[in-house]
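so my prof wants the structure for this chain in the tokens format not the other one, which i didnt know existed until like an hour ago. anyway here's the sequence
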Amino acid sequence: MLIALNKPYGVLCQFTDPDGRPTLADYVPQKDVYAAGRLDHDSEGLLLLTDDGGLAHRLTDPRHKQAKTYLVQVEREISDEALAQLRRGVTLNDGPTLPATAERTAEPDWLWPRDPPVRYRKSVPTSWLRIGLREGRNRQVRRMTAAVGFPTLRLIRERIGTYALDRLAPGELRVLREEKARP
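here's what i got, hopefully its the right format
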């Protein structure tokens, strides 16, 4: 089984939480599936869930280099030099990143309002980027944009390999493949 979920902001990528915070169990009625990868609680967008360990491995193992695409709102108008740095790769505290794809984009017309909203500062503009990675370090996009001087305000994963968000609403899921994995 393979499920696409639009993980809402503030939801943990696990099925239980001793502190009672929102989890995947609040959105995914299917049993015996688990997240193939993670999104931080303050990130939104495409999360794939499966009961197939081999598929989960192919989706998440860096050796398979599944491209992941993110829509990113950053503080201030991003410079050409910062985009060039992202494209070359950025040195983080755990080493250099692989080169990324990075381009300015307009805020999509299909984008849902975030709850709670991103803080608004009248004197500080924001800009939107589309960033593509082939690795998946902890909070990598946020650390990369901060390293080039443009902190991330909002992060939405749009695509993992050939699987796309395809306008799922926050909290909505779509079963992509019904059959159960064989033991």
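also thought this was worth mentioning. The mean pLDDT is 92.
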